[in-house]
Amino acid sequence: MKIKEAKLNDLRSVEGKENLLGGPSFSLSALEMFMMAPDFTVQIAGESAAVLYHEGRGGKSRVLLLTGTAPLELLQAMEEAARRSGTVKITLEASPESTAIPNLRSVGYSEKGTVANYFGKDRPAVYLERLL
């Protein structure tokens, strides 16, 4: 599956799609904003997508959205984008019930703790990271 930087017409296919991490889905206008902002990377692979926020050289990049059926391939592309931005690790928060967690562990993400009420009252998140 071909992975590429998102273009405006690509975003319609992922608008409102389920976030495999358990977080919110994003509207077309939010995805457009991410795509235009210099500290974000939006990658597309068919109807799968990932959004990554880069906190700066020497810092971390944070996965905000992961959708569709190609999450592992997208994560590899996101790691390359994070390296290009100069960050030293990638982090994310996922619902404890997320089906993406086993795949994340299999490619080197490790659990570093939980975040209470991350997704709302009594809805914690698992905090994962991978050093680049």
Structure description:
There is one protein chain. With 132 residues, the protein is of the alpha+beta class. It has helices spanning 28-36, 71-85, 101-106; strands at 4-5, 40-45, 48-54, 60-67, 89-94, 110-115, 125-131. The protein has a single domain, classed as Aminopeptidase, CATH 3.40.630.30. Helix content is 23%, strand content 32%. The chain has a 7-stranded mixed β-sheet with strand order 1-2-3-4-5-7-6, with helices on both faces. α2 (71-85) links the parallel β4 and β5. It is globular, with a radius of gyration of 14 Å.
Distinctive features:
seven-stranded mixed β-sheet; 132 residues; alpha+beta
Reconstruct the topology from this structure:
Elements: E1 4-5, H1 28-36, E2 40-45, E3 48-54, E4 60-67, H2 71-85, E5 89-94, H3 101-106, E6 110-115, E7 125-131
Parallel strand pairs: 4-5
Antiparallel strand pairs: 1-2, 2-3, 3-4, 5-7, 6-7
CATH topology: Aminopeptidase
Q: Total number of β-strand segments?
A: 7
N-to-C CA distance: 24 Å
Query: Sheet with the most strands?
Result: 7 strands, mixed
Number of helices: 3
Please give the CATH class.
Alpha Beta
Rg estimate, integer Å: 14 Å
Order of helices and strands: EHEEEHEHEE
